[in-house]
Amino acid sequence: METNEITGQTQPGQNTQAEQLRPLTLTVPATSEPEPTAETMEPVPNDTPPMPEPPATETPRLYDPGVVARIAQCLSELLDPAYILLFGSMAGGTPHSDALSYDLLIATHDTPQYNWLDVRRYLKMKMPGAGHGAPYLNIYMYAANYVVSQSSPLFYLARKEGVLLYCSDRHKFKRPKRPYPFSEAACNAKHYYTTFMSLGDQFLEQAGTALTENKIRQAAFATAQAAVYFFQVLFRVYHGFDFDTRDVMILHERTRTLSAELFLLFESDSFTPIHTLPCLRRFIINARYDSSFFIHVTELEQHLDRVERMQSIVEKVCMQRIDLYNELARQDEPDEP
Questions:
Q1: How many domains does the chain have?
Q2: Are residues 213 and 276 in the same domain?
């Protein structure tokens, strides 16, 4: 729509600029009633329906659908998976990893040629940024028939609550229908914790005593053996079965996301290098059999201090997990009539 430009002449039928800007004077009768206020005005009917509010129980999605789809694609190219599940906090289910992580359960048709460490390394090569900082990659890989046969809270919660990222044409994925005996899981976890945590405590006490007596070999070996017990207890309480190695560094890699404090305790940053885990691995063998074994007392004290701090972290995390099992057991109990 075109408009006339303002010129010095007044066109017919058009008010002058002064007339347009002339203020309008209203005459209000003295007997006029006061203007209505918001309290006195009658509500005006509104035919527009209100905007629907999101359900109160809706859980915000914590994972990126594009990222997890790419993860599933890469895994299906490397392996022959029956199905792949994303579970834990990222999937909106029962928490598993304490650190923000992609908790993944890969169930395979047959025994794969690669282990979970190889798979994690492969994803880091195929997906820049994956696993380098949060979200981390926490990968479990087992045969599909093993997953079904094991009475494990890990496998049950993953299959019950997990997001199905991939399913092979040769496999029909089914959710578990029967409730899981979480009260039994809590009892088993507490029994294992009591038995083997006390052994770790004894080795830790022996390490401190040997160090005060300047028995370096005994102190180094006992410190490393205590750490192995603590890692084993942490894994067993969370998963319901034993891990297949006693290598302290692999045990840490397997359990590192279960407590963010373990990151701070054993992993270096840009300013503080931490060598406790490699030293503990060396202590297990060299402190017993290497005639040239030596470590300075000050350095050994630092490693012993970290394992003592690890003891308290594992104790706290394991008790929290056992309490979670008891809470899940109470939720599954039928309501009294």
A1: 2
A2: yes
